[in-house]
Records
---
Amino acid sequence: MKAVSSAIYDLIGVAGAASEPGPGVKACAGKDPATYFQVYHPWNFKPTSGADNDVAMNNLKEKLGTGGWVLKRSYRDNSANKNLNLVADNDSKKMSVWVVGYSGRATPSIGIEVTSGCYRVPEGQTVKHS
């Protein structure tokens, strides 16, 4: 998970800083949480220059169609700022990413959440959901 998030960080292509929270574990929608789980990693990127937020989003929009990533959706949300949202999947890595560009905020940033596919808990083990 950290390697995938790091690779996405590299796709951003502008100077800035990422937030610190690490990956977590959650239940798979519609499945028994005692049997199935997903790993997720939400983080934020704040460009050194707020003007670079749109550049970073353009880089992500272009590059999330390469290296095994397939851009599934690109849309503006219903917020007052009409934030650009990108959703991409990487089937070989069994990962998805949802990116939101908060360019209209006083402090521009990018919200990123990487999520794995669903995995079955190994027999005799339990998973602590966070």
---
Amino acid sequence: MNVLVTGAYGQCGTAIIDHLGDQSEYDFTYLNRSDRPPDHRYGQHDTYVADITDYGAIRPAFDDMDAVVHLAAYANTDGDWEDVFGPNILGMYNVLEAARDATVESFVFGSTNHVQGMYEETLKPEIYRPDFPLTIDANDPVRPDSVYGATKSFGEDLGRYYVESDDWPRRFYTLRIGTVLPHGYDSPCGPAERRVAAGDITRDSHEYQQLVMRTKATWQSRCDFAHLVGCCLRDDEVRYGIFYGISDNDRRWFTIQSARERVGYRPSDNAELHTDQRNDSVDEQG
């Protein structure tokens, strides 16, 4: 299967490289707006260098592809409209249009839990407790917590429009990704440890503990993320589906039942059982 990955050197894209890149059933092409030097952890891969806001530049990369995993985006909740419009609105349209024009069968879209992030905003920190009585699925209303979340909701809707109004892509998989972390920080303590490394907080602080509690609910290990992507790439039955990118965490409020039943998702990690609670020495980030 020929697969194009956009945004290949971000946190999610490098998880695909690490955990699916050597599997013989896939022939990956990586598209990114910049390359990596040869001595970088991910510098040994051929890269199609282009910006998704430039349709003419990205279009040739879609030829002969069976599937696209679209991860390129502005991915911060603190972004304003100027930050998100190019990559998340225009870029989303360009990638879908290129997939349609190149008759790509499957489209896996890296969406975000922030399309329903207002549930968390109104219920935190109590929502982080393992016994908090809330389960959210794809039938619950979209409640973006940011313009970033709203643009990802737009991407989900645009994908549905394409598969229901045109012949290509034939299948569209929305992954509402939780917390996927870079190589070297892949644990429930990862976000807190990054802030410790940056000098923003200390490990004995209230902020550290709150961040760990949240991540124990939203974490998806790099292995589980790549596995979920692989489940979607192998599937040939789903026309349009929304699946939550979360490991099998005790504290999660997003359900993974649909992903289990429809695409065979079988996560191997549970944040509550993860033993590597600190990352005192951290490898370079993706």
